[in-house]
Amino acid sequence: MTLKSKLLRNLVLPAGDLFFGQRMMRRLKFLEKAQFWSNQELLNRQNKDLQSLIRTAYDEVPFYRDLMLHRGILPSEILSAEDLTKLPVVTKNMLSDAYPGRVKRKTGQKTYESRTSGSTGKNFSVLEDAETAGWYRASFLLALEWSGWKIGEAHLQAGMTLTRSVDRRLKDMLLGCHYVSAYQLDDTHLYAILNTIENKRLQYVWGYPGSIYHLAKRAEEAGWNRPLRAVSTWGDSLYPAYRSLIERVFQCQVFDTYGCAEGFQVAAQCEYGSYHIHALDVIVEYLDDNDQLVPEGEVANLVITRLYPGPMPLIRYKVGDLGISAASKSCPCGRELPLLQSIQGRNADMVMTPSGNRLIVHYFTGILEHFTEIDAFQVEQDRLDHIIVRIVPNVEIVPTMKEKIIQALKEKGAQELEVDIEVVRSIPLSPAGKHNFVINTMQKPPEAW
Question: Is this prediction's pTM over 0.70?
């Protein structure tokens, strides 16, 4: 460990935690030890935290208290993960209908609203505070450590938060983060990113799978052959073709992570490629469409219970993603954290502009989730220079609002596209019953994609 890393871990970041009230480093140091606990130790701690969560939700959150009273369930009857089946599964719609008054609790910290459309295209709001953020950031740092990265090592991150607030700029400086846009995936910007990696001699690259895939594709075409130590991905489906190309071009392993913008990390890959569930953060259930348990090895709806209550507890929360359990399997890495075989996610398409920029799923979610007037959306590309953005509003949409949406899209990558806004009452599901929020109905030129 370098002197910089030691100073960050033991002095600078703990001081920042004290200032911001998030206790991230304290949690990280706990997780670094607990990851190698025995299965029984993990279960004991998980059960203890679950019991505390249920009691807190019952005492302080009307939404969950009413659910339990309706079922005739007392907190004392929920002692382990198996007992969660006594409670109903909670959906985004249920939480949205009760938001914010009946789903929140006081934590003694300032709360803020986080809006996400995730991979569903439907906007959804949750409440967070600094300690909740510190909780999931600690798990994320632990996952990055599994890739070999150490706090303070320089790296490149491709992301959507291009306006860096004071705390984010401070984070970038302290952690050695070179932050670049994941919006701009045209060849010029991709080459610029490769030059940054080369000139700064960066060994780690982080970001959305779609962004890094196209970066690797351009690197291969340019004959760029400088190996990296690791690539870490999040936020979207890591397709086998993406992983294969990235690992071949950058000559390193890809470490995929899976978390939800609602405020928790779910799983991450270790050095052996296994997805370990953050079992001291969340409990994962695998259910069918009737909320019945699905056998290991079969595709199931993921239902998550976050063990830290925060200002808005999430208990048996149906996140909208699909996954496959590998609970009976073990990993040679020595961690007895339960395994997730794979995250199925959803089929996600992309939009290409006439000049060759690629607008991935999170380009649209990262922009449209900030329009509180929109409940859901879907983007269709029918021509290379034209997209239709269908929106389901929660208020009357006036022409100026349409103009603001178009302007926001054009300012961040869609300037070449003709954008039409259609106001609709609902977004139809696909024949498979999924919400495909970016679809392409034009003939794709294979060489461009």
Answer: yes
